[in-house]
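Format is chain and fold; as here:
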Amino acid sequence: MKEEYDDSQPLVLLLGTLDSEGIRSTLKATGRQYKIKRLDSSPNNWDSIVSLFQRFKIQCAVVKLTGYVYENLVSPQYEDVRDALFEHLGQVPHAIFVHEEVLSGYSDETIIEDEESDDTYEDYFRSTLHQPDDEVRNAVNDLLLKFKLNVLPYKKNAELTVMASSFITGTEEGLLFRIYVPAGRLWAGETDRLVQLFRDYLTNVAHILVRLDQHRTAQGIVYEFFHVNELSEQSVTDESLAIQFREFSQLLDLSVSDPVQAEAILKSKLINPREVIPILTRYAKEAKRLQVDLKHEREQKILAIQQRLESELVDTLPTDVAWETIAVLVNSAVPPLTGVGSALSSDQRPLLAAASGGSITVNLKPQIVQAVNSVVAQEIEGDVHLTELDQKLLQLIREHAIDREAELTSAVHELADTSAPKNDRLLAKQRLKAFLYQVGSKASEVGVGLLQSYLENRFGLS
């Protein structure tokens, strides 16, 4: 019997071997029509997938890439339709799941012991663990990066089902962006005000109707932005929202430093000309207050850190080292204030005792540098404790994921919060693992394998 679809209603696409009961149950709960299409198929079938993007408003796409599909993706006969498919995927909410062995080429024989898998061992081995050669793997991974596609690794089918179901539920509810902030963290209060002001900006200046939800854990708070007008022709993606935040931060800073330019920016938006001055006046007032509060809290933290260090190091600090030197080090380790957007990037820049690729190097005994780092961390991290490897991961994010820094930094903190829901921590872990796979050899000084194992252990502490 031929399936009937309503062209006027949104459609969820399941591409690949994704026909699991858990995912189907999630889709049935949403009441959304969906279509399953295989990727281990002919180029003509791939063309039919591309045509669905032209026929329907695609609510979201969930994709599973196997080793066999990797080989299709580099085949010359698939090249044109592959690029068209990737272009379309990049324009809608999507999640691409790839088994860790396929993504990395590293074989872990324990992976096949998946008691929660929906597949038989034979199907699981055939569809998931087939390994493309290194040339194919690297070519496809480069393509996924080139098209800026959202890749999530998984080890077990149960993990895939949990993440895919969470993703589908989030897109159904219109989830645009989420960020986790530890309680008591430096500038946590200012972050709350900044997020609230950003919601106002999206609604009244960018004309994106959003809802802001907040969820508290024992150690932090999650802010989630939802698009409340799903039938709008305006496409909103993670990337476009990041651009909106950069423009918003710039507008706030200019409203104080250069009101004329800030006014020009507002006039370029589709808002009532009579609303420009009132909006500018309100934003300038909020920005001034935020700048003052951010500055004061940073100064208070620096003073508190210096006083603690004086008490703890009074008997160990060499007589030839002035306290002014320690003050300079503390100022270097505490996050700098570069604008109101600094509230979202309040992680420590650890000091290093010797030159080894870090951003700050000092010539003091390692135990003194360690004491400075420890006290700074305790004062600015809030209720979530970050380890040395967490700090190395944050450094990699700052160096190699500028466009996703807020998202990935948030994932580091959320994974460290053992009171956060397990599914949220799983997603945080897998986002970080996907980033590490992308960074690859650039992280050789830290060791990607070490960080991958660390993330697994971090997740297992719940």
